[in-house]
Amino acid sequence: MAGTFSGTTETDGDWVNLLPEVILSHPQMGENIGASARAMKNCGLNNLHLVAPRDGWPNPAAEAMASGGADLLETAGIYDTTRDAAAPFTLIAATTARRRGMAKPILSPRDAAQRLIEHKSQGGRTALLFGAERSGLDNDEVALADIIITVPLNPAFSSLNLAQAVLLMGWECRMAAMMDAPADPPPPWPAAASQDKQFFFDALEKTLAEGGFFGTPDMQPGVMRNIKAMLNRADLTEQDISTLHGMVKAIKRSVKPSK
Q1: What is the pLDDT along the chain (259 residues), one digit of tens a residue?
Q2: Beta pairing partners, 60
Q3: CA dihedral defined by 37, 39, 45, 46, rounded to 10 degrees?
Q4: Which fold has domain 15-179?
Q5: How far is CA 181 from the centre of its chain?
Q6: Please, what's the b/e burial string for 219-254 (b: 16 or more CB within 10 A of its CB; e: otherwise)?
Q7: 119-147 burial, b if ≥16 CB within 10 A, otherwise e?
Q8: Is the Cβ–Cβ distance between 91 and 23 less than 8 Å?
Q9: What global pTM score does this model have?
Q10: Non-local CB neighbours of 4 within 8 Å, separated by 6+ positions
């Protein structure tokens, strides 16, 4: 189906390499996946990752809806969990309509796009994380993110469908990338990938549990989400993770577990 607007025919420059990748967590309808791929293609975003699509994969309905973005479906990564999909990324921005009580930066689409582009220009790997159509992202999925994006829409009707959300963020990232002029050199240490951070968080959680830090088992998930949010605000590097691992190991050697 032809679109309402017709784009220009200029070729994207090198700045297109600054655009983030897209993770759709537990998408439901194939049509929404296809429409999201088309929105990505409109904005020059080329890497799609799908977490446990409800109706299976591949999905003919997605291919029919994707139009010129069907090639993104063919190369899409498929994962069982959001954690697996998020593993290689060093900066993840989660879109959610609800404040989750987590101590994470909450940015507008424009500010989030600028941060994503700046991070990518310094050698990081970035992703936009979108939740399922009906329920969005759960707290554990939001905990994987470094920043939260909220859109200041009409408070009387603020709901966006999945493809609209992808298009909105894709457009903002495209505009930020086109305006960006990378000048700062990459930091001396690469940013830590999500999989490295999650591995450390697992080790930290085990050590804290053994030491009786959580008080009760019911407290553990919420406390750990807050700890993760606190550490993620530091924009951890690979060297930071290595140092933190060493600190935890030293504490384990010097402190006897509580009985």
Answers
A1: 445 555 555 567 789 999 999 999 999 999 999 999 999 999 999 999 999 999 999 999 999 999 999 999 999 999 999 999 999 999 999 998 766 667 789 999 999 999 999 999 999 999 999 999 988 999 999 999 999 999 988 988 888 999 999 999 999 999 999 986 555 566 678 999 999 999 999 999 999 999 899 989 999 999 999 999 999 998 899 999 999 999 999 988 876 655 5
A2: none
A3: 20
A4: Alpha/beta knot (3.40.1280)
A5: 23
A6: eeeeebbebbbebbeeebbeebbeebeeebeeeeee
A7: bbbbebbbbbbbbbbeebbeeebbbbbbb
A8: no
A9: 0.81
A10: none
- Locate tokens 């759709």: which residue? 24
**Tell me, what amino acid is at 83?**
R
Tell me if 143 sits within 8 A of 102, measured CB to CB. Answer: yes
Residues 7/167, Cβ–Cβ less than 8 Å: no
Q: Where are the domains of the chain?
A: 15-179, 194-254
Which amino acid is present at 53? P
